[in-house]
């Protein structure tokens, strides 16, 4: 626990890849597990969110903050929504007390920018900081098929210590709904963050 009583501090980035449900569910689970969350979201992420879900975020940053606080019933100071170019945000520096960063869902453009150290946005800069500080970086990449360019960037980042976690839900837990498939991927992310959950039955726990 930190001084404010939160279990961990995690930066969650939503980008414009398909799979907005993954990002939403992950944020919900982090909030429920008393994790402090910094959230960055790109303009394409907003478009995909509006396309794939019934959620409608207001356009301004302040209104988005208020909307998500109410929607997820956050504790005071638990969630902070950051602007794309908010370079004064704590996550832009290695001095920040951050346990991990997750990009979920992650576009291949974001994958490329992180792999090459582009740092053109706060999300990219924070990922660069996460790598250099040897903290946990999880990239939930959503694209298919994958080109040699994508695979090369994944290999480079894996060699740097990042966790490459393509959005590839399994079926051994016998999913019955879309939510079951989403929960499988979110459960794998939570496992790598060291956060307890009971979202799915694990391999060997199901009756076959």
Describe the structure.
The protein has 208 residues and is an alpha/beta fold. The chain has helices spanning 20-32, 43-52, 61-72, 108-116, 122-132, 148-160, 178-193, and strands at 9-14, 36-41, 79-82, 100-106, 136-141, 163-164. It is built from 7 helices and 6 strands. A 6-stranded parallel beta sheet has the order 3-2-1-4-5-6, sandwiched between helices. Helix 1 (20-32) packs across helix 7 (178-193). The chain is globular and about 45 Å long. The model has no long low-confidence stretch (mean pLDDT 95).
- Our count of helices gives 7
Q: SSE order, as H and E?
A: EHEHHEEHHEHEH
When the domains are counted, the total is 1
Please mark out the parts with pLDDT under 50 across 5 or more consecutive residues, or reply none.
Answer: none
CATH topology-level fold name: Rossmann fold
Write out the strand line-up for the largest beta sheet, numbering strands in chain order: 3-2-1-4-5-6
The secondary structure category is alpha/beta
Indicate the overall shape.
globular
Please state the average pLDDT score.
95
Q: Report helical residue fraction.
A: 40-55%
Note the beta-strand portion: 5-15%
What's the total count of β strands?
A: 6
Rg from Cα: 16 Å
From the 3D coordinates, which CATH architecture would you assign? 3-Layer(aba) Sandwich
Query: Which homologous superfamily in CATH is the superfamily?
Result: Flavin prenyltransferase-like
Report on the biggest sheet. Answer: 6 strands, parallel
CATH class bucket: Alpha Beta
In angstroms, what separates the terminal alpha carbons? 39 Å
């Amino acid at each position: 626990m930190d001084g404010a009583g939160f279990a961990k501090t995690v930066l969650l980035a939503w980008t414009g890849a398909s799979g907005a449900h993954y990002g939403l569910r992950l944020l919900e689970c982090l909030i429920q597990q008393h994790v402090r969350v910094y959230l960055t979201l790109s303009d394409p992420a907003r478009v995909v969110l509006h396309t794939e879900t019934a959620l409608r975020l207001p356009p301004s940053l302040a209104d988005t903050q208020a909307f998500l606080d109410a929607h997820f019933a956050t504790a005071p100071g638990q969630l902070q929504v950051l602007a794309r170019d908010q370079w004064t945000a704590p996550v832009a520096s290695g001095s920040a007390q951050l346990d991990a960063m997750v990009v979920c869902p992650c576009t291949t453009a974001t994958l490329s920018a992180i792999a090459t150290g582009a740092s053109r946005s706060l999300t990219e800069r924070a990922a660069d900081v996460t790598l250099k500080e040897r903290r946990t970086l999880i990239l939930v990449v959503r694209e298919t098929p994958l080109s040699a360019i994508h695979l090369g960037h994944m290999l480079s980042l894996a060699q740097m210590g990042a966790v490459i976690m393509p959005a590839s839900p399994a079926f051994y837990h016998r999913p019955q709904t879309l939510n079951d498939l989403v929960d499988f991927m979110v459960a794998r992310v939570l496992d790598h963050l060291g956060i307890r959950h009971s979202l799915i039955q694990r391999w060997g726990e199901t009756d076959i």
